[in-house]
Specification:
Blueprint (H helix, E strand, L loop, with lengths): L10 E7 L5 E13 L3 E6 L3 E4 L4 E3 L4 E6 L4 E8 L2 E9 L3 E2 L4 E12 L5 E4 L1 H10 L4 H20 L8 H13 L1
Parallel strand pairs: 1-10
Antiparallel strand pairs: 1-2, 2-3, 2-4, 3-6, 4-5, 6-7, 7-8, 8-10, 9-10, 10-11
Length: 178
């Protein structure tokens, strides 16, 4: 019997889906640094990623990943020489089924640079998929509200965007690598 969330120290997979239920992308190995019903923090480095069409690639740098049960986004902090870059996916809250941590990717993304400048990405893709997959109006409204919430977090340096947060989680990740 699995718990409602993965256990700290466990190595899990992450599966991203589209609104229509089709797999979008899967990350092979992520170490759970903290797991609770509200939030899962994971770390990975050079993990294999499999795309929906079967192509694979390997991540280039260490990343700390933040998944939420109450927010419609997840945040990937990529640790590079020149600083931390964030890739934020507007998505459903996570679910854990004992097989993988899963969420629905809703196309809209926010890229955040080390200086906290940000760019909203893939608005055209979002509109196209919203029509094609018939996102309900209530989902559209939730997603757009969460874009605003995420921008607020970035501007106020809340959560993963607060100074030293990613570095502290990265230190924990390094401990699991030894």
């Amino acid at each position: 019997m699995s718990t409602a969330y993965p256990i700290t120290g466990e190595i899990i997979q992450i599966h991203s889906y589209k609104h229509n239920g089709h797999i979008h992308r899967a990350w092979k190995e992520t170490v759970v640094l903290s797991g609770s019903e509200q939030m899962v923090v994971g770390g990975n480095d050079r993990t294999i990623v499999t795309e929906a069409d079967g192509r694979t690639w390997v991540t280039r740098e260490p990343a700390i990943c933040f998944f939420y049960a109450e927010h419609w986004f997840n945040i990937i902090a990529m640790i590079r020489e020149e600083g931390v870059y964030y890739y934020c996916n507007i998505s459903s809250p996570f679910v854990w089924d004992g097989e993988a941590l899963k969420y629905i990717d809703y196309d809209l993304d926010i890229k955040v640079f080390p200086n906290m400048h940000y760019e909203i990405l893939d608005e055209d893709e979002y509109e196209s998929h919203r029509q094609e997959m018939n996102y309900p109006d209530v989902i559209d409204k939730i997603l757009k509200n969460n874009v605003h919430k995420l921008i607020y977090w970035i501007k106020e340096q809340k959560g993963p965007f607060s100074p030293n947060t990613v570095q502290e989680w990265y230190k924990k990740f390094i401990m699991y690598q030894k």
